[in-house]
Design brief:
This is TetR/AcrR family transcriptional regulator. The protein folds into two domains: 54 residues, Orthogonal Bundle (Arc Repressor Mutant, subunit A); 143 residues, Tetracycline Repressor, domain 2 (Orthogonal Bundle), CATH 1.10.357.10. The chain is 71% helix and 0% strand. With 210 residues, the chain is an all-alpha fold.
C-alpha cells in the first residue's frame, strides 16, 4: 500500500484515552452515517451519540472528515482481522482457500452495511486520504494472494503465478457483489448457496476438483 496512514492530531496526550474515545466516536458515527449519511450528520450529533460534548469531540479530531476517515479505516481493519482470525494456515493451499472463501463471504455478509458505507461515503474524503482508505483493500486481497501462492507451491492450486493478483482481486469483487447485490441475489440464493456456487466456480479455474 503506497499511501501512508493519516495521523490525526489530538489535544489529549494519553494514547490509551485517545484510543478509547476514538472507538466511541467511530461506533457512534457508524450508526449515524449508515442511517443519515455523512453529509446530513453533524459533528454535534456525533458528539452527543458518543456521550460527550462538542468541545470534547474536537479534542480528538479536527473535522468531520477525520471521523469518516477513522470509520473507514476501522471497518477495513475489522474485515481483515476477522478474516485472519477465521483462517487456519495449516494444510494445503486449496484447503485453506476453501476456508478463507467461506469466512470472507460470511464476514462481508455480517458487515455489509459497514462495507457499503465505505463505498457510499468515502468519496467525501480528501484525495490523498481516499487513496489510503481504498488501498486498505490490498491488505485483504493480500491474504488471498498468500494463500494462492501457498497452493501453487504445494501443487494443490493450478494457476500461473502471473494471475495470482488478478484471482485475488476477483475474490474481493465476489465478496463485494454480495454486499452490493444482496437485495437481488437473495431472491435466488441463500448465503450458503452463494458461497457454494462461487467457490465451485473459482476452484474450477485453479484446482483439480473440476
Amino acid at each position: 500500500m503506497s499511501e501512508r496512514k493519516k495521523t490525526i492530531p489530538s489535544l489529549v496526550k494519553d494514547p490509551k484515552l485517545i484510543e478509547k474515545r476514538r472507538e466511541q466516536i467511530i461506533e457512534a458515527a457508524v450508526d449515524l452515517f449508515i442511517n443519515k449519511g455523512f453529509y446530513k450528520t453533524t459533528t454535534r450529533e456525533i458528539a452527543r451519540a458518543s456521550g460527550f460534548s462538542i468541545g470534547t469531540l474536537y479534542e480528538y479530531i479536527e473535522s468531520k472528515e477525520d471521523v469518516l476517515y477513522l470509520v473507514c479505516d476501522a471497518i477495513h481493519a475489522e474485515v481483515e482481522n476477522r478474516l485472519r482470525e477465521a483462517i487456519n494456515f495449516n494444510g494445503s493451499g486449496l484447503k485453506i482457500l476453501k476456508l478463507a472463501l467461506r469466512s470472507f463471504f460470511r464476514v462481508m455478509d455480517q458487515m455489509s452495511d459497514r462495507v457499503l458505507l465505505i463505498y457510499q461515503e468515502a468519496k467525501s474524503l480528501p484525495k490523498e486520504t481516499l487513496r489510503y482508505v481504498l488501498g486498505r483493500e490490498e491488505a485483504i486481497s493480500g491474504i488471498f494472494e498468500e494463500i494462492l501462492r501457498k497452493g501453487i507451491a504445494d501443487s494443490s492450486i493450478h494457476i500461473d503465478e502471473k494471475h495470482v493478483k488478478l484471482m485475488a482481486d476477483n475474490i474481493m469483487v465476489l465478496g463485494e457483489m454480495w454486499v452490493f447485490r444482496r437485495w437481488a441475489l437473495h431472491k435466488h440464493y441463500s448465503l450458503d448457496e452463494f458461497i457454494e456456487k462461487q467457490t465451485a466456480l473459482l476452484l474450477g479455474e485453479m484446482s483439480n476438483e473440476k
